[in-house]
Amino acid sequence: MTALLTPSLRAALVALLLAFCLPLAADSKPIDKVLVLKEERQLQVISEGEIIRQYRVSLGKQPKGHKLQRGDQRTPEGIYTIDWRHHSAQFNLSMHIDYPNLKDRAAAYKNGVDPGGMIMIHGTPIDEDYPEWFFHGLDWTDGCIALPNADMQELWDLVPVGTLVEIRP
């Protein structure tokens, strides 16, 4: 079989393989954390202290301030971890953030409220009545962090379970 490959054909095949493999190798650096900057509506993927990806996000309907209790429609602020992920019938791909952390639980206990939960980084609904462009620039979630589906797919491919998530005001 190799006798059938001319040197120029072999070189072309090697170049083609490198074209596909090098981008994968470049993205195989370990992800240090996901940083969400609420005020800027921005999610950054950080590897070795460097921003390698950046996305525009939507937040909870009440985006200012830290999530205090179930139903307040705020996105939490603090240090969390992605603890599981799944394909969501409602929101395409989704990654769960381990909110509430110990600090959140203590504050909720002190105030006599339920801190809530099920905070996710997720895609946009697949809905014929509300196409994806409808959500662009809106804060529409119940406290989650949402991205367009193409961006969410890229994030899904980059960020493993166990990744640190820092959410800043």
Question: Can you characterise this structure?
Answer:
By secondary structure, the protein is of the alpha+beta class. It has one domain: L,D-transpeptidase catalytic domain-like. 24% of the residues lie in helices and 27% in strands. It is built from three helices and eight strands; from the N terminus they run αβββββαββαβ. The chain has helices spanning 7-26, 102-111, 149-158; strands at 33-37, 42-47, 50-56, 78-88, 92-97, 119-122, 145-146, 164-168. It has an eight-stranded mixed sheet, covered by helices on one side. Residues 11-26 have low confidence and may be disordered.
Which range best describes the helical content: under 10%, 10-25%, 25-40%, 40-55%, 55-70% or over 70%? 10-25%
Question: Could you give the count of β-strands?
Answer: 8
What is the end-to-end distance? 61 Å
The total of helices stands at 3
Report on the biggest sheet. 8 strands, mixed
Task: State the CATH topology.
Answer: L,D-transpeptidase catalytic domain-like
The run of helices and strands is HEEEEEHEEHE
CATH superfamily: L,D-transpeptidase catalytic domain-like
Low-confidence stretches: 11-26
Q: Give me the side-by-side strand order of the main sheet.
A: 3-2-1-8-4-5-6-7
**How confident is the prediction overall: mean pLDDT?**
86
Could you say which overall geometry the principal axes of the C-alpha atoms support? globular
Supply Rg: 20 Å
CATH architecture: Beta Barrel
Structural class by helix and strand composition: alpha+beta
> Which assembly state applies to the chains in this document?
single chain
Domain count, please report it.
1
